[in-house]
Amino acid sequence: MCGIAGFCDFTRDNRAPQWQYVGWEMANSMAHRGPDGEGLWYDRAVLLAHRRLAVIDPAQGRQPMTCTQGGRTFALSYNGELYNTEELRRALEGKGHRFSTRSDTEVVLHACMEYGADVGTYLEGIFAFAFWDGESLLLLRDRCGVKPLFYAVMGETLVFASEPKTLFRYPGLTPRANRETWQEILAVNPARTPGHGVFAGVRELKPGHLLRMTGQGQTTARWWNLLSLRHEEGYEDTVEHLQYLLTGAIRRQLVSDVPLCTLLSGGLDSSVITAVAAKEYQAQGRQLDTYSFDYTDNDKYFKASAFQPDADWPWVERMRQAFHTNHHVLTCPQQPLVTLLEEAAEARDFPGMADVGSSLLYFCREIRKEHTVALSGECSDEIFGGYPWFHRQDMLESDTFPWCMDFSARAAVLDKGLVESLELEEYARRRCQQSRAETPYLDGETPQERRRREVGWLNLNWFMTNLLERKDRMSMHSALEVRVPFCDHHLVEYVWNIPWEMKSRGGVRKQVLRDAARGLLPEDVRNRPKSPYPKTHNPLFERLCREKLREILDDANAPIHDIIDRPALEQGLMVSAGDYGRPWFGQLMAGPQMLAWLIQVNHWMQVHHLRV
User: Fold this and answer.
1) Sheet architecture: strand order including 373-375
2) Alpha helices, DSSP H only, in 392-463?
3) Edge-to-edge strands, sheet with 125-132
4) Measured in Å, how far apart are the chain's first and last C-alpha atoms?
5) pLDDT tens readout for residues 292-320
6) CA 174 to CA 588: how far, in whole Å?
7) H or E element: which one contains 279?
8) Per-residue pLDDT tens over the stretch 43-102
9) What residues are labeled active site?
């Protein structure tokens, strides 16, 4: 994985030294995404910048990569991993292309030269890139949005980058807030409206979309979308087909020239990935490294809830014994969870999922000491319907986002006048309904089936993209590449059309996946109830957050005063957060996470000089 950036303007000469300086500034701002190399390439109308994290062919895959053919120079700045590299290379060689490296970057470059704006349909993997063909610039992003890409337009200039912070290294492009900024942060954050960059003037290239810029202007288009089709296979054939797709996706993503590991929670999703990977490694005479996460004293304080029914550690040990992995247990103390809250917000460029983000940042840094690539089980619940809102009728029928259907926790700490003037609850409801209206329905579905498909659509476009953004920023801030086999587009397309009565056969969550895992996993692991990403249950975390927030509240100049109802906060959360089992976002963010989120919001406002 890497970081990409650049700009395009057909009205000036971008080869001038002043623009080269800007290009290097943009590249340096994302050094965390690529510590193994940097590069700059420019032509009259365009400049491409790059930071490289070397994974395949470290010696020869330098970027931006160029190729001259027919008197034209083609250039590519690419962030991603291509999983059909060899197949595509052979196809391109059959069309006369010649290669001098083993890198997937060179394959993507020649594929762009051959297929132009249609290139996305030939690529299997996770990617975001900028391609210059001598006359136009093409920006393109992978199907599920695993790899990020943001842009802004200033007059005649298009500026783009992997992260918003890099955009702000371009002269005159500064962090600004407007009405929608505060609606996004206060109403739907930690999620974010697809295509919206939160900062005024900043846009996100949506997953499965492309942007093309020529001397006549720019256009955007969707190049991939989910199709709702009638599922024709019976249950046993579906299980067999699913196992084939899943194991294939995992095996393809094991390719690496640098140390690779898997993240293992002992849950169904991470266990399937680990099982397949461990067997592949054993066949090669190698031992797979695995990592699990925990928190200091969690064994003392863990309390089961409807959202987190049991602890991970017994299941991790069960998997370690079954597959003989070289296992590492990473334990995060409470203090770093709080200390890293602000850096996690900086890494993401937005307030995030509180300690869920700061702990992930901590764990990624620890993994990076030994490994460069990790495989993770994210996104299974989104495509298989593993979350409570697929099963609980009140959540399924909610007229707003089911993972934050109760707005009262936000309203209790925010300034009442601001909540009313920004119409925050209505904003969230409106965004939800707009996304629901985009759902690709299937003719003949019952109202219940249509509603569940809508919730699935919301999950893919909101909740999943939020988790992918969290994973990308926290891992790449640590120079760690994380791959997500459950986002393989063949798998996503297939599972999207599996009927609910198969997905949740017998009323059991993700039963079709459990059956596809038969023979891969120990039976008790295969049938383990769902449990989300682990979080701390130590009351010390809450106390440390309260102390940190107290320091902020005692600073009269702290920007958080613009948005909070201080008397309500003082009488409520600042006395006792508690309520660990009633999340206000997702499954993990309860009272203590509200304290942590307010710390992140304050820091985000402070760093970017934003006031309401």
Assistant:
1) 326-332, 289-295, 260-263, 373-375, 481-483
2) 393-396, 408-413, 416-421, 424-436, 447-458
3) 65-69, 72-82, 125-132, 137-141, 209-214, 217-222
4) 36
5) 998 887 777 666 555 555 567 788 999 99
6) 33
7) helix 268-283
8) 999 999 999 988 877 777 789 999 999 889 999 999 999 999 999 999 999 999 999 999
9) 2
